[in-house]
Design a protein that fits this description.
Shape: elongated
Largest sheet: none
Number of domains: 1
Helix content: over 70%
Number of strands: 0
Length: 123
């Protein structure tokens, strides 16, 4: 396996792992996240729970897509979503360190996007 393939697969596994983990936590209805959704967009708990379930399902779909056949626009979405979900922590009152700790949540999909961008130009 070439070095490029190893780098690609490490990034794909990292992105898929992050989105699978977050997706499954969302699907099971992580209590803090339900509260954050309610707080940020002003909806009741049942609505926030439903939104979190949908978000979780989409996160798992993103993870599977990255493993099966990555799509560059989806990687940009993953980078945006990873950045946003990391940023939510200080917005709901947690330390900014909780945002910094989650840098890989947006940096890994962005790195994979640029990896494909670079290799596409070299073909």
């Amino acid at each position: 396996m070439t070095t490029n393939k190893k780098i690609e697969w490490l990034l794909r596994i990292g992105v898929a792992g992050e989105f699978t983990g977050h997706g499954l936590l969302a699907i099971e209805g992580k209590k803090d996240w339900i509260g954050w959704i309610s707080q940020m967009i002003g909806v009741d708990t049942p609505t926030a729970t439903t939104l979190l379930l949908l978000i979780g399902i989409f996160d798992v779909v993103v993870a599977l897509t990255v493993l099966i056949k990555p799509i560059r626009p989806l990687l940009l979405w993953a980078a945006f979503w990873g950045f946003w979900t990391a940023l939510v922590r200080p917005l709901v009152g947690q330390s900014v360190l909780d945002f910094i700790e989650r840098s890989a949540n947006w940096a890994a999909p962005l790195a994979l996007y640029y990896f494909y961008q670079r290799n596409n130009k070299n073909e």
